[in-house]
TrEMBL record:
Transmembrane segments: none annotated. PANTHER family: PYRIDOXAMINE PHOSPHATE OXIDASE FAMILY PROTEIN (AFU_ORTHOLOGUE AFUA_6G11440). SUPFAM superfamilies: FMN-binding split barrel (SSF50475). InterPro entries: Pyridox_Oxase_N, Split_barrel_FMN-bd. Residues 14-130 form the Pyridoxamine 5'-phosphate oxidase N-terminal domain. It comes from the Bacteria. This is Pyridoxamine 5'-phosphate oxidase family protein. Pfam families: PNPOx_N.
Amino acid sequence: MGKQFSELSPMHIEFIAAQKIYFVSTAADTGTVNLSPKGGDSLRVINSTTIAWLNHTGSGNESAAHVLLNPRMTVMFCAFEGSPLTLRAYGSAKVLHKGDAQWNEYIELFPESVASRQIFLLDIAKVQASCGMSVPYFSYESDRKDLAKWSEKQDKAGIEKYWVKKNQQSIDGFESEIVERSGL
């Protein structure tokens, strides 16, 4: 078992800032557990006990639906170069949509994107650092531009239409509240 902490240390925060990919896991009390890779310039450490990450439009909307039912969330970072380390932040998450009062407070932290769908705030209860000695080395080449190109082609109206068609429910049928809370 790794070392556990009640909050992120300055070393943890520095490690997180250097990562190009992270993973988010959520689950309702029943149904499918979701684990999603995230990348790009979409994560901010607000302080030692709070992480914010910007969720872009995607084919599913599991994290939002799960957090509404059960706010548990784990965010995991892995060293794919340099010294081995796997860092997990466990806690309780809150989902913000464009129609929520706190949206404007946090959206300014991220690059502008027509694909911005939700912001998640993770209130960290526990941090675990473990060795990660079996995680392979990988080299970062670049961020993918596919989502940005697709989103720009859709424009705001097309993205919102996509949310209505594809993002209102999780794969288990749980509501995401995207239509109601985004003012659609």
